[in-house]
# Entry
Amino acid sequence: MSVQKMKEEIQQLELRIKNLNIRVKKIQQSCHHQYDGNEYYETCKKCGKVNALYY
# Structure
């Protein structure tokens, strides 16, 4: 596999990751969260969104 083909594949994968991250954010924005956690952070059982409670 040539370097050029590897770079093209990397660009395609980066674009796919970007699109997947956008989809995750949309799902998390529309989720009716059900949080579970401890005194430091809580995680939504449905969508996986994490809220830090203590810094």
Summary: The chain has a mean pLDDT of 94.
